[in-house]
């Protein structure tokens, strides 16, 4: 009897020990998975911290403190590395100042942009509208401004167009030039200098006005002067300034894609601010068609500079055909004036420019500047 009772007692003790062991095992498993889940969360937060993200502890909402999480179980880590990590953790718990990280500086734009196409197909038969051109150029900002977002431009270019009654030509010019200029990675603005009234047209004086008014808008260091009816046929003809004054339109279709004569400087040309001021800008006294380009060429050579030009295969242009404008008849005095450039260039130019600014209006694709520039002086009576 005594042995039977002793056996039952031992059986109960064994069952109790077994239950305790089982309970202990369950508790250990619960604690293990709880610690594992916290450890996994710690890993994920550390990874987020490595990517630069910050997490606010909900219990410290409104306190302005942020916390970083670090992985303290790195493989092959030493005690010193753990201590360094701990120091970083302590530093991260300190209140931070309201400092925003400075943006990474952009690299300079390449001298030869990689996105250029080369020879272009230029045609004027399709219908063109400003709405279409605007949809084609969503990255151009108000006033016809553009700055490449991925690099730092080497030049800040104002493109100046003398203008009167050429709205249809302007649509084609904007349609072709905006994409070309964007591919060339320049910071640019488009300025249409509109001569009000119906008096004799004065192209060179309008270009002087464009130079003056563009500088009121931005710190341009390069100025390109273009007729509105000339479209480049190759986007490798880069619209920026060079060490010498630049003549871009050297091979027009109306001249059989040849330079008409060695001193020709018409159509599209470019000068840096320093070059422009060195020649005192352009002449103001060429009323009507012709002569002002030759006067500008004389100013350049008389001031010790040379005209630079692109390769004739790249400097090709198409001209939009049109009738000669009214009040822009050939200037009968142009030949005499060209011969006197040396005597007139110091007193006739940007230093003597006068005009009346009437309106500046910024459109999505260009800035329109309307001006009154006066009338030509009366011609001397013959005999």
From TrEMBL:
Subcellular location(s) per record: Golgi apparatus membrane
Entry's Gene Ontology BP terms: carbohydrate metabolic process
Residues that span the membrane, as ranges: 12-33
GO cellular component: Golgi cisterna membrane; Golgi membrane
Membrane topology: Single-pass type II membrane protein
InterPro entries hit by this protein: Galactosyl_T, Galactosyl_T_C, Galactosyl_T_N, Nucleotide-diphossugar_trans
Keywords, alphabetical: Disulfide bond, Glycoprotein, Glycosyltransferase, Golgi apparatus, Manganese, Membrane, Metal-binding, Signal-anchor, Transferase, Transmembrane, Transmembrane helix
Domain Galactosyltransferase C-terminal: 246-323
EC number: 2.4.1.-
Chief location of this protein within or outside the cell: Golgi
GO molecular function: metal ion binding; N-acetyllactosamine synthase activity
Pathway it works in: Protein modification; protein glycosylation
Residue ranges annotated for the Galactosyltransferase N-terminal domain, each copy included: 109-241
Catalysed reaction, written as an equation: N-acetyl-D-glucosamine + UDP-alpha-D-galactose = beta-D-galactosyl-(1->4)-N-acetyl-D-glucosamine + UDP + H(+)
Its biological purpose: Responsible for the synthesis of complex-type N-linked oligosaccharides in many glycoproteins as well as the carbohydrate moieties of glycolipids.
Protein name, entry field: Beta-1,4-galactosyltransferase
Organism: Channa striata (Snakehead murrel)
